[in-house]
Amino acid sequence: MTNKQDLNIKKKNSFFNYLKKNLIQTTKNLSKKIFNLFKKEKIINKKLFNKLKETLIVSDINIHTTNKICKLTKKYAENNKIKDSYKLYDFLKKEMLKILLPVEIPLIINNKKKPFIILIIGVNGVGKTTTIGKIAYYFYRKKKSVLLASGDTFRAGAYDQLFTWSKRSYSFLLKDNKKKDSAAIIFDAISYAKKKQIDILIADTSGRLHNNLMLMEELKKITRVIKKYNNTDIDEVMLILDANIGQNSINQMKIFHKNIGITGITITKIDGTAKGGVIFSIADQFNIPIRYLGTGEKITDLHLFNAKKFIDALFYK
After folding, report:
1. In terms of Cα–Cα distance, which of 127, 100, 1 is closest to 305?
2. Alpha helix positions (H), the chain
3. At CA 223, angle to CA 222 and CA 228, rounded to 5?
4. Tens digit of each residue's pLDDT, the chain (317 residues)
5. What is the pTM of this model?
6. How many C-beta atoms lie closer than 10 Å to residue 209's C-beta?
7. Which of 186, 212, 202 lies closest to 238, judged by CA?
8. What is the DSSP string of 259-295?
9. 314 burial class (0-12, 13-18, 19+ CB within 10 angstroms)?
10. Sequence-ordered list of residues with C-beta below 8 angstroms from that of 48, at least 6 positions apart, any chain
11. Distance of CA 108 to CAs 232, 279, 304, Å?
């Protein structure tokens, strides 16, 4: 084995161990409970599927996705005349992988378009600014120039926080010009990025409550300004979701997608939460690409979403 092959294997195993460690709470709440259920309830009957349904719902998988999983599992058991419930564990793992695979779509940067515009949206507290810094650093390591736009004019200290992350991520941030209009700030950032031929522009936005009419109107105005200036759609409208809020993230998805139109998702704080099961509901219900998982506070704690690695780490025995 060559040194290069050996290094690749070590990196692969290292990432798997890292993901496994960060999914430990969701694993306890979901896959280990399913494993213990199938081990304890040997007979395949209505009682078993009722308990399976309860386990999936408690792990923050919504009723629609839960019913779908249970129906497929029951049909598989009947068609294959399976008597031992433990044999259903691997099938269930494969079916849950099938739910996630369609949304495993990485963000591809169009190198011919400068700047490639990423609009970051989401409510306060989900980790928008931190995620912006992580994404900026990710592309810095890909040899891309990145400009940040401080479009959150509502939250005190938003500019200063973004400035700190710009330094950490080796990206640019225009000097605070005290403008109170988010659309105007982002417009200036696009103009600067075009002039300097910067590869990527990542625009922060305000994050007041997701049912706040004023916030939605502000975001709509920003998208109109970008489209008018760019004469095209925004390249990426990325919604940041906090895994800790579980099923509440579904409500946020519905409202933001209806009003703005989401093209990609980043799920933050997946480490330490027992509600990571919501990722299956998000994937099944919306079929919108999950771009990244955030797993900590370090600038490197951002990972491309990989469905198989996620499932392997989650269902690790």
Report:
1. 100
2. 3-22, 24-29, 31-40, 46-58, 63-79, 88-100, 128-140, 158-168, 182-196, 213-230, 248-259, 278-286, 307-314
3. 100
4. 444 444 343 444 566 677 777 777 777 778 888 888 888 878 888 998 999 999 999 888 999 999 999 999 999 999 998 888 888 888 999 999 999 999 999 999 998 889 999 999 999 889 899 999 999 999 999 999 999 999 888 887 889 999 999 999 999 998 776 667 888 899 999 999 999 999 999 999 988 765 577 888 888 899 988 888 766 678 999 999 998 888 888 989 998 999 899 999 999 988 766 677 889 999 999 999 999 999 888 899 999 999 999 998 888 76
5. 0.89
6. 12
7. 202
8. HT---EEEEE--TT-S-TTHHHHHHHHH---EEEEE-
9. buried
10. 37, 38, 41, 85
11. 17, 22, 12
Phi, psi of 268 (to 5 degrees): -100, 165
- The residue type of 80 is N
Tokens of 175: 């000097």
Which pair of structure tokens corresponds to residue 55? 């386990």
Q: How far is CA 299 from CA 14, 120, 316, in A?
A: 17, 17, 27
Q: If you count them, how many residues does the chain have?
A: 317
DSSP state of 121: E
